[in-house]
Amino acid sequence: MSQAPTKHRLPPLPAPQDQNSEQERDLQPRRTLYDTLTAIDPSPQRLSLPPLIRIPVLTTLTCLTGFVLGFSHGAPLATYRYRAENAHRFPTTSTGWYLYHRTKGYHAVVGGVKHGMKMGAVLGFTVGSFLAVENAVDKVREERGLGTKDFGSTVVAGASVGGIWAAVKSRGEVMPAARMVKMGVRGGLVYGLAQDGMAWLRGHPPGYVRWVKGLMGGREPGNPDAVDGAKI
User: Which end of the chain has a smaller Cβ tally under 10 Å, C or N?
Assistant: First the structure.
């Protein structure tokens, strides 16, 4: 028996697209990663960067800076160590001197890389922990209505990181531990006040500045319609 020929169905035609909608879509500005992260938390950010950008960028820059500083310190140190270890057997031929300097350069590079990686990891961990604690304290203060982003969170972060290093390095001694905590508090205070000053210059004065101006009967900078003595 002969089979009936099968009919091949053509695929459906694509629906006509509206050219006006495509042109409007092309004219709309494209959202960047910065715009997306800023939309999550529209409040004024530290250093004008959202935490998801500020913390990784500053931590990475600190790691690179620590690596460069560690390499510049570790390479000469490894060179001096190699010269001291081989001071009793200096070469006497040109080939021997060539091999001596080549080996010395190899030791300098290896020693510099090791020292650079160590210092980069230490500085990166310190700065990353500091920024993470600072951001966490900011979030807690905002959720509980304990103020806005100012140097208070930075001082707490500095004291926390100083306490971590005090617990690791002090070995139970009180004076070194207290010295590290004081160093963290002072560094956090200086860095926090610097951030507050930058925010004030951008038109976002810290909460304590507005509070003091309210007590003194002044107005908030950049807001001439603010009521004197208004609470923040």
Answer: N
Cα–Cα distance for residue pair 49/61, rounded to 1 Å: 15
Residue 181 has which token pair? 């905590």
Q: Which residues of 121-146 are buried (b: 16+ CB within 10 A; e: fewer)?
A: eebbbbbbbbbbbbbebbeebeeeee
8 Å CB contact between 195 and 49: no
> What single string gives the DSSP state of each residue in 194-228?
HHHHHHHHTT---HHHHHHHHHTT---TT-TTPPT
One-letter amino acid at 63 equals C
Read off the amino acid at residue 68.
V
Contact between residue 210 and residue 149 where contact means Cβ atoms under 8 Å apart: no
SS3 166: helix
What is the four-CA torsion angle of 211, 213, 219, 222, rounded to 10 degrees?
-80
Instruction: Give the confidence band of 228 by pLDDT, cuts at 50, 70, 90.
Output: very low
d(CA 159, CA 95): 57
* H helix and E strand count, the chain: 7, 0
Structure tokens at 66: 């620590």
- Joined tokens for residue 32: 């960047």
Question: Is the whole-model pTM more than 0.90?
Answer: no
Q: What percent of the chain has pLDDT over 70?
A: 75
List all residues 6 or more positions away from 58 whose beta carbon is below 8 Å from its beta carbon: 127, 131
How far does the chain reach from its first CA to its final CA, in angstroms?
Answer: 92
